[in-house]
Amino acid sequence: MYCRKCGTQLQEDSRFCGKCGENQYQSVGAPVRSRTVAGFLALLLGWGTHNLYLGHIKHGVVQLCLWVVSSIGVLAASLGESTVAVIVFGIIGILVGIWETIEGIRIFAGKEKDGNGNPLV
Question: CB within 10 Å: which end of the chain, N or C, has fewer?
Answer without folding.
Answer: C
